[in-house]
């Protein structure tokens, strides 16, 4: 909050709770870091063989399923393919 990246507000439905949201600057930083991470992950995956990518996808699907995550609605959101 002191850095100006988030704003804290009282929940209008329950005054005992606080709501936090990103400021425009906070959103800009999160978007920048996320984009950089996607590029780095994409570069790593690009160096993997097709078989390794298929194994990675299978392992990540198993991990998500074990964690109770809903199925992906967007195939490969980082932009890489299984082959």
What this model shows, in words?
With about 80 residues, this protein is an alpha+beta fold. The chain has one domain (about 5-65). It has 2 helices and 2 strands. The chain has helices spanning about 25-45, 50-65; strands at about 5-10, 20. It has a two-stranded antiparallel sheet. Strand 1 (about 5-10) and strand 2 form a beta hairpin. The radius of gyration is 18 Å and the shape is elongated. It starts with 5 loop residues before the first strand and ends in a 17-residue tail after the last helix. The model has no long low-confidence stretch (mean pLDDT about 85).
What distance separates the N and C termini?
A: 44 Å
- Number of helices in the DSSP assignment: 2
State Rg.
18 Å
Strand residues, percent: 5-15%
Order of helices and strands: EEHH
The secondary-structure class comes to alpha+beta
What overall geometry do the principal axes of the alpha carbons give? elongated
Q: Enumerate the spans where pLDDT stays under 50 for 5 or more consecutive residues.
A: none
How would a textbook summarize the main sheet?
2 strands, antiparallel
Identify the quaternary structure here: single chain
Instruction: Tell me the number of structural domains.
Output: 1
User: Strands of the biggest beta sheet: in what spatial order?
Assistant: 1-2
User: Approximately how much helix is present in the residues?
Assistant: 40-55%
The count of strands amounts to 2
What is the typical, i.e. mean, pLDDT? 87
Protein name: DNA-binding MarR family transcriptional regulator
Keywords: DNA-binding
GO molecular function: DNA binding
InterPro entries: WH-like_DNA-bd_sf, WH_DNA-bd_sf
């Amino acid at each position: 909050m002191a850095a100006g990246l988030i704003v804290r507000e009282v929940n209008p439905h329950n005054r005992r709770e606080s709501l936090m949201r990103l400021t425009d600057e906070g959103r800009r930083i999160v978007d920048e870091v996320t984009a950089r991470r996607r590029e780095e992950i994409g570069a790593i995956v690009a160096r993997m063989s097709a078989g390794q990518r298929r194994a990675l996808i299978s392992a990540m699907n198993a991990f998500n399923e074990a964690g109770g995550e809903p199925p992906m609605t967007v195939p490969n959101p980082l932009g890489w393919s299984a082959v």
